Amino acid sequence: MRLVIAITGASGALYLQRFLHHLDGKGHELHLVMSSYAKQVIHQELGTLAIPLEVQQYQEKSMMAPFASGSALFDAMIIIPCSMGTVGRIASGTSETLILRAADVFLKERRKLILVVRETPWNLIQARNIVTVMEAGACVLPAMPSFYSNPKTLEEVADTVVFRLLDQLGIESPNACRWQES
After folding, report:
1. Any alpha helices (H) in the chain, and if so which ranges?
2. Is the separation of the CB atoms in 169 and 112 below 8 Å?
3. Ordered per-residue pLDDT tens for the chain, 182 residues
4. What is the DSSP-derived secondary structure letter of residue 69?
5. How far is the C-alpha of 106 from the C-alpha of 135, rounded, in Å?
6. What does the alpha-carbon distance between residue 131 and residue 127 come to, in Å, rounded to a whole number?
7. How far apart, in whole angstroms, are the C-alpha atoms of residue 8 and residue 101?
8. Do 6 and 78 touch, CB atoms closer than 8 A?
9. Are 9 and 83 in contact (CB under 8 A)?
10. What is the spatial distance between Cα 34 and Cα 3, in angstroms, rounded to a whole number?
11. What is the Cα–Cα distance from 115 to 129, expressed in whole angstroms?
């Protein structure tokens, strides 16, 4: 699978770290772009982000990445975590950074765009922006962990969201706890 992965300035860098942990960098082509605010959040929350060697990285202000054009074929784009400010800019189609341009491309080309929003509560403007991006074709996957698997660590809590994201991508997650009848 060819994936574009982006991170913006919302708290929750651990979600991206766990997503990268569960992806097979040798089995998938991974492209990563981080906003400047994301880099600050990563530093605050994790210190550093462990990025597999196979991941290709791009600068936020560059438009030379292949996924900035609809002519390049990619399977999905994930913004994890996605700030509500980013949702608003995607909803208005501003495209002023590589993350926003790529999201615009994925929407216009009807490719899978998954926004893992983390901020709460929402105001009415944010709720309307969520509706706008959903109507445009994005999948909004709020970072709402589940607890029926009895997670014991922060990583296990984050994994409950990451496993749902992997499900959306059709990527096998054998360690996911599945709800079932007792």
Report:
1. 13-22, 36-45, 84-92, 98-108, 124-135, 154-169
2. yes
3. 999 999 999 999 999 999 999 998 789 999 999 999 999 999 999 999 999 999 999 999 999 999 999 999 999 999 999 999 999 999 999 999 999 999 999 999 999 999 999 999 999 999 999 999 999 999 999 999 999 999 999 999 999 999 999 999 999 998 898 888 66
4. S
5. 14
6. 6
7. 14
8. yes
9. yes
10. 14
11. 12
CA–CA distance, 57 with 31 (Å, rounded to integer): 6
Q: For the chain, which domains are there?
A: 2-169 (3.40.50.1950)
What's the token pair of residue 10?
């919302």
pTM above 0.85, yes or no: yes
DSSP bridge pairs for 78: 5, 114
Is the CB of residue 32 less than 8 Å from the CB of residue 6? yes
Contacts of 38 (CB under 8 A, 6+ apart): 7, 8, 9, 13
Helices (H) and strands (E) in the chain, counts: 6, 6
Helix axes 36-45, 13-22, angle to 10 degrees: 90
